[in-house]
Amino acid sequence: MKYQHVEHTFEPVFDEKSNVLILGSFPSIKSREEQFYYGHPQNRFWKILSNLTKEKLPITIEEKRAMLLRNHIAIWDVVASCDIIGSSDSSIKNVEPAPINNILKQAPIQRIYVNGGTAYKLYKKYCEKETKREAIKLPSSSPANAAWSLERLTDYWGKELLL
C-alpha cells in the first residue's frame, strides 16, 4: 500500500446540549466507506458507550447519532485531511487539522477527550493552541489496541467520562 491524500467527508455529531467531546484521529477505510465514525466492526467504541450509557448497542447511523445526542456527547476527529496509508494512524502525515473551535463555539463542551495515543499527539500538536483547551487521553477503542479488553476499556472510560 502507498500514501493517499484523503479528506474527511462527514460532519461532526453535536448539538447545543453536547457537553463532552470525543475526538478520534482520522476515519478508517471502513468508516470512510460507511460515512460515519467507528465503522470497523471490531472497533469497540460503540460497545463502550453502550455499556456506559446503559443503552442498547446502536447499529444504524441514526441510532448511533441519537445515542450520542441523548447523552450529550459530541464526536469528531482531530484531522480534516492528511496523507495516510490505508487506515494506519501511525502513517498519518501532512495534516490539516479539523476546525474544532466550530463545535466549541456552538456547544457547552466541558471536557475534551481523545480516543487513543495518536489522536492525543495530533491534538497536542495541531489543535490545543487553537482551542486553548487540554484534552484527556483515553485508551484507544481500536482493535489494534489488543492489550485492552472491552471490560478494561469500559472501566477506564467510565472513570474518565463521568457520563
Using brief descriptors, characterize the structure shown.
EC 3.2.2.15, 7 helices, 163 residues, single chain, alpha/beta, 21% strand, 3-stranded antiparallel beta sheet, glycosidase, 4-stranded parallel beta sheet
Description:
It is a single chain. The protein is an alpha/beta fold and 163 residues long. 35% of the residues lie in helices and 21% in strands. Strand 4 and strand 5 (93-97) form a beta hairpin. Helix 2 crosses helix 7 (150-161). The mean pLDDT is 96.
Profile the largest sheet. Answer: 4 strands, parallel
Number of helices: 7
**What does the radius of gyration come to?**
15 Å
Order of helices and strands: EEHHHEEEHEHHEH
Biggest β-sheet: strands ordered side by side in the sheet:
3-2-6-7
Enzyme class: hydrolase
Protein name: DNA-deoxyinosine glycosylase
GO molecular function: DNA-deoxyinosine glycosylase activity
Domain Uracil-DNA glycosylase-like: 11-161
Task: Note the topology.
Elements: E1 4-7, E2 20-24, H1 29-34, H2 45-53, H3 61-70, E3 73-77, E4 79-84, E5 93-97, H4 101-106, E6 111-115, H5 117-126, H6 128-131, E7 135-138, H7 150-161
Parallel strand pairs: 2-3, 2-6, 6-7
Antiparallel strand pairs: 1-4, 4-5
Quick overview of this protein structure:
This protein is of the alpha/beta class.
